[in-house]
Structures are given as structure tokens and as C-alpha cells.
């Protein structure tokens, strides 16, 4: 029988890869907590309308990548392709739109998109993210960016990473900019890709996010939004830059960033790196002032970002910062009479915070061989003579030394 394999675009997290993955999430969780974020967990699948409304039907995610299906009740549900829409839906569903705003939310978990698998990009992937729900001030934009930068600093992966920021302006700015883009791209319509010709009619800003090589050549000379910003929008963007400088976050302006989803307004940003090949974005987000309304809630200005755990973990690996597996202590009983005292000592070590294990079978030689294979740092050997003294042999496997130690003192020696 042919061994079963993971579904295309999925992968198993084992050993070093899992430890890197776990470190990314734990560091992000800890730093987000320092910034006042609380963790939420939303369902892995939602009513399809949550994403179709929130992400926009011209986005690649909605038009090409969502895993949507009818359940047995005939309802259309979708495996979440991202989590911002779900967090906004949760805010509305749980009646939190009027109380204790702004809400500062952290999340971590799996997402699903049907796209071509490649290094660092899977059909089931994982994201961390933060959202500030109910804050209209540019300080909120700067703080969420500063939190993301702090997480990357703590992971030790900031070398070669650059923050790029842009503004999408307010509604009046975007209307004026939209008209300018329609005029420009219409003049080049015959050279645009099929997707971009469709977007020209429905959402011309999305053309700026095209990955098509022919489109990119045309986009290079397209007008930017900076000639169409209202004074209010320009002032907002200046405030974000001022606060980023105060937070000590370096950045550069990239007028072509629009992000891949339709709900963004004002600030858009990406942390990009040259260390992951073509997949250069490791964290990105922006402001989305209309998304909570799309979920049936009141106007709720919000801002946030998401980051792919797999890509961050690749940077951890490239930086030589893969966490080591905890080194164990092997507890080795010699003879049947030593087994019960050995198990009691094993639990005492674990309660003292010591990673410890006992082999399920084998004589002293085989158990010692297993301890060496696992890279154990010490072995505690309980034989009849030692037990008669209420002691055990404590062997330092790095130094090669051994001494007799009272059983009561062993957890303290190894903790």
C-alpha cells in the first residue's frame, strides 16, 4: 500500500520546524501583551459573506483563493483566508461595538487559501496578527506598526528588513485618485492583463497590486496618490510618520503599496525583506475604517496587521536562531525494586520544572545508550545500594562525572 501523504499545499510541523513556529507565536503573544492586546480566537470557518463583504469581490482572495463550500444544511461557509474580517465580525456578534473601545486584539492560528504552493507559502498556513478596533487617531497606526517591529526585533530577524508605508487617503482623496488612475490605465488598456482590465471597471486601485510583469511596467509610470490627497488625509499621514519616528521605527515611503484586500484606507504598510526570494513581505496591514460596518456594526475606525508564521520562521532559521530542544534528564532504575522510587523521583523533577524522562524498558546499558542518543544532560541512576541509603547516582553526561546525591536534593541540583 502506498503511504499516505499530506494534502497538496499542507505540511507537518515536526522537530526544529515546530520549535521555530512555536517561538514566533510565543514571542508575538508576549510582546503584544506588553502593548495591551488581549488574545481572541475566532472560528476557523465562517459564513462566506464575512469574507465576500469584507475583502471585496475584486480581491484575488475572494475571486480565486477561498475554500468555500455548502455544508449539510445548505449554508455557504468558507475556511478563513485571513482573520481581520472574522475579528470584526466577532466584535459585532458579541455586542462589543459600544463598550470599552478601542479594543486591542491579538490572534494566532491557521488560515486557508487555494494558491500555488511554494517555499514559505502553503494552502494551510498560519498567521499572527493584531487589530486596534475603534481608534481613529494616527497614533494607533504607528503603535501597531511599532508592535510589529518590536516582535521582529525580539525574534532577532530585523537584519535586511525594511518597513515601507503608504497612504490610501480618505474617501475624497481616493475618489480623485481613482479618476486619475482610470484616465491613465484606460490609455494603456490594450496592454493590461485580463484581470487588470476587469479591475479597471470595478476597482482601479487594485491594478497597482498586480503581479503581472506587463502590468508592472505600466504601473511604474502611473500617477501616485500624493497629488490627490486632501489636507486632512495628508495631515493624517504626516502624523503617522511623526509617531513612527518617536517610536524609533525606521521606514521609507512606497507609493505603490495598496495591499491585497479592498477594505484598507489611509495607512497601508509592509515589512519587506530581501532574504526570502520572491516572497519578500513578512508582515503587512493598514487602516480599515469601514470593515466593522460591513459586518453590520456602527462606524468603527480600525487598524492592524497580519504576518505569516511560516515566513517569520524562515527568517528565524536563516538567522541561525532555531531554538534548541530542551535537554532532558534520564531517570534510570536498576532492578524491579527501583522502579517505584524512580517514578516518584521522575515526577518530583517534572514538578520542579526539569524536563525528565524514563525509558519504558531495557537494562542499564540500553537505557544509558538511549539517554546519550537523546542528548540528555544528566542521568539519575537508582540501584539497590543507593536506595538503601536514600540516594541515587547523579551522572553529568557532559562532564563525565558522577556522585552520590540524596534523593531529596536531586530536583534542586538539576532545576
Characterise this structure.
This is Histidine--tRNA ligase. Residues 1-333 form the Aminoacyl-transfer RNA synthetases class-II family profile domain. This protein is of the alpha+beta class and 415 residues long. The protein folds into two domains: 16-170 and 230-318, BirA Bifunctional Protein, domain 2 (2-Layer Sandwich), CATH 3.30.930.10; 329-414, Rossmann fold, CATH 3.40.50. Helix content is 38%, strand content 21%. The chain contains 15 helices and 16 strands. The strands form three sheets. The protein has an eight-stranded mixed β-sheet. It has a five-stranded mixed β-sheet with strand order 13-12-14-15-16, with helices on both faces. Strands 2-4-3 form a three-stranded antiparallel β-sheet. Helix 1 runs antiparallel to helix 5, helix 1 (16-34) packs across helix 11 (309-318) and helix 5 (138-155) packs parallel to helix 9. The longest helix is centred in the N-terminal third of the chain and has 19 residues, at 16-34. It is elongated.
Task: State the helical fraction.
Answer: 25-40%
| Uncertain residue ranges | none
How many beta strands in the DSSP annotation?
16
CATH fold description of the largest domain: BirA Bifunctional Protein, domain 2
Report the structural category.
alpha+beta
- Measure the end-to-end span: 47 Å
Kindly estimate the percentage of residues that lie in beta strands according to DSSP.
15-25%
Which sequence of strands runs across the widest sheet? Answer: 1-5-6-11-10-9-7-8
Profile the largest sheet: 8 strands, mixed
Could you give me the name of the CATH homologous superfamily of the largest domain?
Answer: Bira Bifunctional Protein, Domain 2
Mean pLDDT: 92
| Rounded Rg | 27 Å
At CATH level 2, the architecture of the largest domain is 2-Layer Sandwich
Q: Tell me the domain tally.
A: 2
Q: Give the CATH class of the largest domain.
A: Alpha Beta
Oligomer: single chain
Backbone shape:
elongated
Number of helices: 15
Family: Belongs to the class-II aminoacyl-tRNA synthetase family.
Catalytic activity: tRNA(His) + L-histidine + ATP = L-histidyl-tRNA(His) + AMP + diphosphate + H(+)
Keywords: Aminoacyl-tRNA synthetase, ATP-binding, Cytoplasm, Ligase, Nucleotide-binding, Protein biosynthesis
Binding site for L-histidine: 82-84, 113, 127, 131, 259, 263-264
